[in-house]
Amino acid sequence: MPENLTTSLQLIKPEIALSILLVVIVLFDLLFDKRKNLLPFISIVGLLITAYFVAEQFNMNNFAFRYDETSVGLLAVDSFSAFFKMIVILSTIFVILFSVASTEIVNSSDRHGEYYTLIMAMVLGMFLISGASDLILIYVSIELLSLSSYILAGFLKSVERSSEASLKYVIYGSAASGIMLFGISILYGLLGTTNLYEMNALLQNANVGGFTFIFAGIMVLGGIGFKVSIAPFHFWTPDVYEGAPIAITAYLSVASKAAGFALLIRFIKVTFFQSLASDGSWIMLGIIDWQRILIALAILTMTLGNFAALWQDNIKRMLAYSSIAHAGYLLLAVAIFSNDGVIAVLVYFAIYLFMNLGAFFVVMLIANKIGSEEMDDYKGMGSATGFLGVALSIFLLSLAGLPPTAGFIGKLYIFIALINADMIVVAFITLLNTVVAYYYYVRVLKNLYLVRTETSREKIQVSFGNVIIILLLLIPVFVFGVYFTPIVNLAKNSATILGF
Amino acid sequence: MEVTLTHFLILSTLLFSLGIYGIVTRKNAIMVLMGLELILNASNINFIAFSRFGNFGLQGQLFALFVIVLAAAEAAIALAIVLNVYKTFVNVNVDEIDELRD
Q: CA-nearest residue of chain A to B78?
């Protein structure tokens, strides 16, 4: 047992590093009250150290916290979770840089200690989610992520929109996780274990099934679907994304969505997997027809997201619906149930990270100056925004999936996976959806460059540091659009989930 | 009459349904939060009952302990948010707080 514990502790080095970082931030905030401006710097250094430990975990295949030598453990440490941890770290570093540039966050500087502590708590939650292979750990880590994000959504205490966003988030979110918990309790009652791998072993032999099992499975799917904003569990997304501070909105739309998808893939694959076909597609147990359910939800999600985005006048709200549509594409890639599908999800996330964070960052910089995110206020701003406007246009076109930007490659891999799996009709519906999506992205460009207004606007100045951050996001969007082999190779290496 | 697993399951299902009913119908945010607590406790009853009657070991009881702690944390955070909403909006009725709309 003791030597077992030391192996486990070595396997969770990133999580330990993060926990230490969290305590350091709290102590620093208490002891050096006047030097709060150093907190982002400490956070980034800590995250880089964590990233070093995560990099060691690529190609690792082990369980942390086994009961004994033969049994399976609580936390899977594999390259699949390492990939998602890297996505989370990268987006956290960018979001910390955003927060430094954000007027609304900087103005509440007396509470910076809480801000960075809660972000680190979210990162820890997402790390555990991406490796969790036991229902207890899944529930606890989802709550760790959610509880921190409820507070961060309402971080601007005196702003009405922000308070309302956090109230809606906490009520919907707790209801979703409560329903998920009830589903978990029924699963536990039916199978007698909380470990996903043990559940799978039981399901291979025993004839468990029927209405109760499907009901419980859908309850758990609802809880996870809430985190990744799949319709019909998406209703919180527009309100929370619009009300929360923009840095937090960007964070929720990338990092917590990535963690949710990691959990969704692991939960469905590990629990309901039967065997691997020769062409790399997964043969699933016939207890629940997940493929049909997920494809239906994915089509519903992307159609709803794209069509609702058409009527939005607030750009943050439009990006919220666009992120719902992207969740639909990703869910479709999951529903293919093959290694190709998982590779498509991983490639898509690596690209989505840059383009979505970039779009939110530019919207934030413009909002810093003109104090608004309304579409109408963007009219005729083309020359006033200068570099910002060009950058925003590129990020939006990449989100729409226009070649030669990286967004095209992300969509391309999803389509390849769909066509390899002979899902031509679904691929066609997705294609129609991406056409609809062009309209609302291009509408922003039209407002920026083609609409003429009488009043001339003052030119918006961008500081040198912010230009560097934008370039850090913009260059990958171009580079990965033409030279995407490294990402695809990394994704191929990371697509294997422990045990299969 | 002997108390069996079925009795516990009926109780927990009733509590769960009451919780959902409370969340859907109540306007006051505090009452909605009470509905949430009912759902969490319904799951707790399930865990304990399954663990006791199914001879599954102690995992269920352990899970219930975790849920109790998390429910407390969740209640604390939710109440703090409701308090903050009360300060800005001077009421806590869920359907009157709707600045964010299409």
A: A170
Phi first, then psi: give them for residue A284, nearest 5 degrees: -100, 160
Q: For residue B74, give the nearest of A174, A188, A311 by CB distance.
A: A174
Distance CA A248, CA A154 (A): 10
Tens digits of residue pLDDT in B19-40: 999 999 999 999 999 999 999 9
Residue B49: its chain A contacts at CB < 8 A? Answer: 189
B66 reaches A (C-beta below 8 A): yes
State in Å, rounded, how far the first CA of chain B is from the last one. 57
Quick one: which of A228, A216, A237, A302 has its CA closest to A265? A228
Q: Which residues of A touch B78 (CB under 8 A)?
A: 150, 170-171, 174
| pTM for the predicted model, two decimal places | 0.95
pLDDT digits (tens, 9 = 90+) for A269-314: 999 888 888 877 888 887 888 899 999 999 999 999 999 999 999 9
Q: Write the ipTM.
A: 0.96
Size of the A and B interface in Cβ pairs below 8 Å: 125
Domain boundaries of chain A, sorted by first residue: 299-500
| Six token digits for residue A16 | 């330990």
Q: Write the DSSP symbol of residue A314.
A: B
Q: Which domains does chain B have, with CATH numbers?
A: 5-93 (1.10.287.3510)
